[in-house]
Amino acid sequence: MKLITAIIRPERLADVKSALFRVGVTGLSVSGIRGHGGEPEIIEHVRGQRIVVEFAEKVELRIAVSEAFVEPTVAAILTAARTGAVGDGKIFIQPLERVIRIRTGEENEAALTPLTADQVQARALQEAPVQGTDKLGKTP
Amino acid sequence: MNETGISAGDTAWLLASAALVFLMTPGLAFFYGGLVSRRHVLNTLMMTVGALCVAALVWAAIGYSLAFAPGGAWIGGLAWAGFQGVGGEPQADYAATVPHLAYAAFQGMFAVITPALIAGAVVGRMDFRAYLLFVALWCVGVYAPVAHWVWGLGGWIRASGALDFAGGAVVHITAGAAALVAAAVVGARADVRRSPLRPHNIPFVLLGAGLLWFGWFGFNAGSALTAGRLASLALVTTHLSAAAAVLVWLAIETARAGKATAVGGATAAVVGLVGITPAAGFVSPLAAMAIGGITAAVCYAAIQWRTRLNLDDTLDVFACHGVGGMCGALLTGVFAQQSLNEAGANGLLAGNPKLVLTQMIAVVATLAYTLAATFVLLKLIGLVLPLRLPLAQELEGIDRHAHGEAAYHEATGDDLFDPAV
After folding, report:
1. Fewer C-beta neighbours within 10 Å, C or N terminus of chain B?
2. Looking at beta carbons, which residues of chain A come within 8 Å of B198?
3. Quick check: B264 and A45 CB within 8 A?
4. pLDDT tens across B299-320, in order?
5. What's the predicted TM-score (pTM) here?
6. How many CB atoms lie within 10 A of CB B342?
7. Where are the domains of chain B?
């Protein structure tokens, strides 16, 4: 089992979510965060004064998956979150010691797959056919 | 009109105008509140509300009398203290067609917003009690005398022939100059160099500017004191000046940084309204556009200059109201036309360059007196109360310490990510 933490652009969240659902990864947590990476700092102007905003808004996804799902998850995030410009984010993968579903007490692999995974995946495949990020027009 | 000479139309307009000017103070609260950080917004709102209440009482108790009761060239008398003898009969020297009390109430709204303006210079760090005491003393020691000079019967600036339709000197130059002194005496924010001012709620800023613009129709057109030709002129000039100021400001911003900002637009509207205030009933609509545009450019430059100093007039009260008020007062001397208002005078463009000099004397006198008197008042208050919060409380946020409240409870952590924090 692995814990996958992905930092992505906020505006890519909808596409990343669809891509994850399409590969059957339907359990995830999302939080809004700020961070500093390699991208140019944001400049705001207040009454003619420049303000450098050093921390850019990002979205953090946390996904616990069994070994078989690690590569499909990474591939889905890479395809849907990449624009090719600096600031697309990072994916961190860490080993996961133990998972417990609170409702039943099930552990590990049994606790990982959400009950409705199949339906969510089927709906996602129906609603949005597989698509890449080519249309964004940013050169990788 | 009945036998006492009271006009129902004029009275209705003046009472409505008083209510419009009142609304400017809550409007100002949101204009200022949106500009500060989320840890200071409640205190910023409360300073404005506090000024409103303190100044309202002080005005009725003694301020109106010192400003308008019969007296000398420098200060009015005490005959109307506590609004004694200020009743339903008109006071023909000021406004012949409305009850005296309506006039006193209308003037009282001006006395409320003027000290509230000063709060912008000291947001986030001034002791709340000291601030309220300052408002009370400043109304008596600065606002009332200057109002007497400019508008009071026998006041020396009024006698000199200087024009101030709705308070360019009385309201805006005094508030701006006092802000400069308050920023210097109270001192800069502890983290002023490290943490630039980043508005926490720009929609508040625009909401506040919108309310100010709306209320300013009462401020300027109400100052006609009659519901007729002059009020119409003042309303139109007020509107056009603000609109021109916004467009000029946005053009300057676009030329310099490539972006027309919302905070810039809101600031420019206020600046354009300040600029036209002394001129509103004396100049033509076309001149009003010029006044708005020129004032916007001058105030924009003043803000750039101020931010290079160590002086932390945090919300640029001096650069907007002080400089804007001076600019408007001088431009009144340029653009005034007696053909528009027989109580006015001809200015430079109408062949009377002397009016510019007269206006300049009024500006310099108002500025000098306000700087000196405000300094003395703040030093006196400093003897009995601390002027500012202890450093640790200031850094943690004045809302928590002065009011025991927080404006926002959601744990967004937005504050953590402010630039350079």
Report:
1. N
2. 44, 46, 51, 53
3. yes
4. 999 999 998 888 999 999 999 9
5. 0.89
6. 8
7. 8-399
Closest CA to A136 of A79, A97, A95: A79
Instruction: Note the pLDDT tens digit of each residue in B21-79.
Output: 999 999 999 999 999 988 899 999 999 999 999 999 999 999 999 999 998 999 999 99
Q: What is the distance between the alpha carbons of residues B182 and B122, in angstroms, rounded to a whole number? A: 7
- Kindly report the three-state secondary structure assignment for every residue of chain B: CCCCCCCHHHHHHHHHHHHHHHHHHHHHHHHHHHHCCCCCHHHHHHHHHHHHHHHHHHHHHHHHHHHHCCCCCCCCCCCCHHHCCCCCCCECCCECCCCHHHHHHHHHHHHHHHHHHHHHHCCCCECHHHHHHHHHHHHHHHHHHHHHHHHCCCCHHHHHCCCCCCCHHHHHHHHHHHHHHHHHHHCCCCCCCCCCCCCCCHHHHHHHHHHHHHHHHHHHHHHHCCCCHHHHHHHHHHHHHHHHHHHHHHHHHHHHHCCCCHHHHHHHHHHHHHHHCCCCCCCCHHHHHHHHHHHHHHHHHHHHHHCCCCCCCCCCHHHHHHHHHHHHHHHHHHHCCHHHCCCCCCCHHHCCCHHHHHHHHHHHHHHHHHHHHHHHHHHHHHHHCCCECCHHHHHHCHHHHHHCCCCCCCCCCHHHHCCCC
Pick the closest to residue B328 from B365, B296, B305 (CA basis): B296
Using one digit for the tens of pLDDT, what is the confidence trace for B131-160? 999 999 999 999 999 999 999 999 999 999
pLDDT value of residue A84: 92
Residue from B192, B195, B298, B417 whose CB has the most chain A CBs within 10 Å, to mutate: B417
The confidence score (pLDDT) of residue A137 equals 46
What distance, in Å, lies between the first and last C-alpha atoms of chain A? Answer: 31
Q: Is the pLDDT of residue B206 over 60?
A: yes
Q: Is B75 left (phi over 0), alpha (psi -120 to 50) or beta?
A: beta
Give me the interface pTM, i.e. the ipTM.
0.75
Question: Do the chains contact at A53 and B257, CB–CB below 8 Å?
Answer: no
- Could you give phi then psi for residue A92, rounded to 5 degrees? -115, 135
Which residues in chain A have their CB less than 8 angstroms from residue B199's CB? 46
- pLDDT value at residue B211: 98
Question: What structural domains does chain A harbor?
Answer: 2-126 (3.30.70.120)
> What one-letter code names the amino acid at B311?
L
Tokens representing B403?
């009011």
Phi and psi torsions of B300, nearest 5° = -60, -45
Asked if B322 and B308 count as a contact pair (C-beta separation under 8 A), the reply is no
Residues in A touching B420 (Cβ below 8 Å): 52, 54
Instruction: State yes or no: pLDDT of B3 exceeds 80.
Output: no
CB contact under 8 A, A46 and B199: yes
Q: Which residues of A touch B261 (CB under 8 A)?
A: 45-46
